[in-house]
Amino acid sequence: MKKLFLALVLLLATGAGVLYGFPATLLASMQWLEQRAAGLSHERVEVADLSIHYYRGGPRDGQTILMIHGFGADKDNWLRFARPLTERFQVIALDLPGFGDSSKPNASYDVGTQAERVASFVQALDIDRLHLLGNSMGGHIAALYAARYPQRVSSLALFANAGIDAPVKSELIARLESGATNPLLVQKPADFERLLDFVFVEPPPLPAPLKRYLAERAVDNSTHHQQVFTQLIERYIPLEPELPKIKAPTLLLWGARDRVLDVSSIEVMRPLLRRSSVVIMEDLGHAPMIERPQETAGHYLSFLDGIADAED
């Protein structure tokens, strides 16, 4: 298997000029390599008439980590972050319905509905207990799931989660309240560059043809994403009443320079949680598992090891 992996790397290197002319092929090849490096496979399951795609890797008889992406994102957000996790844990990263490769029906996408879809997904995979992890909108969904199904959650990690009325308004919230354009929505190709600059302190390097392809894909999804975002606002579920229901130890991890959701949310959340740990990463934006995956995974593994030590 290692020889096959090395052979593909060499093939991609020698055929780079060809791949640059076909960005969809380049993206698929890069994703495949990242999956292999993380020990993940692409799988699919039918749940309540929805086709849900996900990555899964690591020991099937080990403890399970389920990772939930944020708004406008997909399961690929977790690929590099997952690398050090699959040696010890069964790791699952799903595409929420409405995103990635999963079904996109004309249906509800508020966090309450999505939390119940996650519950159905977990049941379909016959998982009794899990470590739950979410970023942004995915953190909002993960926290709501942990509050509704506390007996199923061994630990909860929230990376810059939505759902909190922060003492300090983030730049995103201030823009939306002023009626300015939503920087998370890509309505024309140039918006994609601005989105990257808004979400990250140091945007991930992308070949120019791939960046153009991702921008065009985001534009194609803009109407759907606008509808989803509208539902998130109109059917908003605040987390403040839900957090005291969470029994699992919880990690609150945030980038200090997050412009999407302000780090001051932690001040609201920590007193409402039974058992919480906090990590604030300097010079980091809204998606720590993408911007600094290895360092973020290290913090997460330290959190899980601390739980294990406390239980011994």
UniProtKB/TrEMBL annotation:
<dbReference type="InterPro" id="IPR000073">
    <property type="entry name" value="AB_hydrolase_1"/>
</dbReference>
<protein>
    <submittedName>
        <fullName>Alpha/beta fold hydrolase</fullName>
    </submittedName>
</protein>
<dbReference type="Pfam" id="PF00561">
    <property type="entry name" value="Abhydrolase_1"/>
</dbReference>
<dbReference type="InterPro" id="IPR050266">
    <property type="entry name" value="AB_hydrolase_sf"/>
</dbReference>
<dbReference type="GO" id="GO:0016787">
    <property type="term" value="F:hydrolase activity"/>
</dbReference>
<dbReference type="InterPro" id="IPR029058">
    <property type="entry name" value="AB_hydrolase_fold"/>
</dbReference>
<keyword id="KW-0378">Hydrolase</keyword>
<dbReference type="InterPro" id="IPR000639">
    <property type="entry name" value="Epox_hydrolase-like"/>
</dbReference>
<feature type="domain" description="AB hydrolase-1">
    <location>
        <begin position="64"/>
        <end position="293"/>
    </location>
</feature>
